[in-house]
Each structure stands twice: as C-alpha cells, then as structure tokens.
Amino acid sequence: MSTPRVAGALAGRSLVLIPRVPSTFVPSLIFPIFSVVAFSGAFSAVANIPGFPVPKVIDWMLPMSIVQGAAFSGMTVGMGVARDLESGFFDRLLLGPVKPFGLIAGPMGAAVVRAVIPFVLVLPVGMLAGARLRGGIPGGLMLLLAAEGTALMGAGWAIGLALRAKSMQIAPLMQMGIFLAVFLSTAQVPLNVMTGWLHQVARFNPMTNILALSRQGFIGDVTWAQTWPGLIALAGGIVALSLFAVRGLRGLVP
Q1: Is the dihedral of CA 97, 101, 104, 108 positive or negative?
Q2: Which pLDDT score, from 0 to 100, does residue 75 have?
Q3: Burial letters 125-154, b for 16+ CB under 10 A, else e
Q4: Mean pLDDT within 40-51
Q5: What is the 3-state secondary structure (H, E, C) of the chain?
Q6: Is 163 exposed, middle or buried (0-12, 13-18, 19+ CB in 10 A)?
Q7: 155, 111 contact by CB (below 8 A)
Q8: What are 114-158's pLDDT values in tens digits?
Q9: pLDDT by residue (tens digit) across 103-120?
Q10: Virtual torsion, Cα 110, 37, 58, 118, nearest 10 deg
C-alpha cells in the first residue's frame, strides 16, 4: 500500500477512537478549560503590573491554554501508539507491505485534526469569559497555526517515547515534557516582568516564541516581527521531534 493511504487509514483509526475511548481526547479539552478558569482567576491581578501587555489576564492565558491543549492532542496519539505496541497491533503493522514512515505520519496527521477541537471549543469559552481578539481573523489564524504546529511537536515527542518504551507506563513522561516546555516559558507572565533563573530559561525556550506567535492577535495587530520567530521555532521543533519519532521506529523495523 502507498504511504499516503496507510497514513490516512491510521489517522482515521485514531480519530474514530475519540468517541470510543474518551481518555484519548478528554485531556486535550479539560486541561485548556481548567487553565483558563484557574489562571484567569488566580492571576487576575497580574494584569495590573506595569508593562503587562494586555488589560485582562485572560487575554494572556487563553492562547497559552489552547496551545497547551493542542500539545496534549499530540500526546494522546502517542498514547495510542503505546497502546498498540502493548497489544501487538503495531507489530502486525510492521510486518505488512507498508513503508515505516506511514506508521508515523498517520498518528501525526490525526494530531493535526485533533488540535482543531480544543481551538474550536475553548476559544469561544474564553471569548465569552471576556477575552478580546484585537487582531481579528489574522490573529485567530496565528493562534490556530501555533496550535497545529505544537500538536505536531507533541505528537513527535510522544510517539518517539512510545516507540522506545513500548508501554503506556511512559505516559507520565510525555505529560512532564509538555508541562516543562510550556511552563518554563512565558506561559504566565511576559519576559519583561520575569526575574532570576526562570527569565533566562524562558528567554531561550522556543515555546516563548511560539506563544508570542499565538498571542499577538490578543495583544494587538499581527506583525511580521512577532510572527517569524514563532514560525522558526515551530519548524525547528517539528523537524527535530519528527526525527526523534522516526529514529525510535528504526529500532522496531524487522
């Protein structure tokens, strides 16, 4: 079978699991909504800090929550690969007349589709709660682009771990990697109000540029200066983590 057909079939199989196995979808929806509610309430006074770029903290937290949800969408497809490895289904796929790359491309394609769901569901919730998309449609497109790219990164990370561990027990490490990448960046406050070691880590964390890409429509108009660093961070992360997944597959190919 051709690689596109194999990838499409595996992507469709992953999407079918959404209503059948809610645990493969719920985290990518619950975590963003929880983040919007929890952080927008607990951190509401942060917006009063001089230099904070938005009048309401929800404008800062909502894009981060959606991007985080997209990352978890990628993680859940990695959990699906781990489950297939435990059941022996993935071994049967390896013995079939398919190119191994299709076995990676399928779940990653499903992650792209899954990432649309938290975007579509969480964004209206945030807007009803008071968030304002000042950049209009271009700002929304930048948020969607950041979410989709982050979903691919999350999928590469999770699939690579699953192929190495061959067990669902690796799921906590998948989650930890995503949490560290997000919260050791400008997830909660901008760089100009950070101090100490967190400022240095966030400054060089690629997720900082990705979040800047996603947030610019909530801060003001979309600009190239805020866009290109995020695009480079996304491209580099997608390539690096896709290679991480592919290298994990090489150890399984008979």
Answers
A1: negative
A2: 92
A3: ebeeeebebebeeebbebbbbbbbbbbbbb
A4: 81
A5: CCHHHHHHHHHHHHHHHHHHCHHHCHHHHHHHHHHHHHHHHHCHHHHHCCCCCCCCCHHHHHHHHHHHHHHHHHHHHHHHHHHHHHHCHHHHHHCCCCCHHHHHHHHHHHHHHHHHHHHHHHHHHHHHCCCCCCCHHHHHHHHHHHHHHHHHHHHHHHHHHHHHHCCHHHHHHHHHHHHHHHHCCCCCCCHHHCCHHHHHHHHHCHHHHHHHHHHHHHHCCCCHHHHHHHHHHHHHHHHHHHHHHHHHHHCCCC
A6: buried
A7: yes
A8: 999 889 989 998 998 889 999 999 999 999 999 999 999 999 999
A9: 999 999 999 999 998 899
A10: 10
Whole-number pLDDT of residue 165: 94
Contact (Cβ atoms closer than 8 angstroms) between residue 32 and residue 68 = yes
How would you class 16 by CB atoms within 10 Å of its CB: exposed for 0-12, middle for 13-18, buried for 19 or more? exposed
Taking residues 30-40, what's their average pLDDT? 81
Nearest CA-CA partner of 211 in 117, 71, 110: 71
Supply the pTM of this predicted model: 0.93
Give the percent of the chain with pLDDT over 70: 98
As a whole number, mean pLDDT of residues 60-64 equals 94
HSE, side-chain direction, 13 A CA sphere, residue 246: 10
Q: What is the CA radius of gyration of the chain?
A: 18
Instruction: Please check the confidence at residue 95 and state whether its pLDDT lies above 90.
Output: no
Residue type, 181: A
Q: Which positions ≥6 away from 51 have C-beta within 8 Å?
A: 190, 192, 193
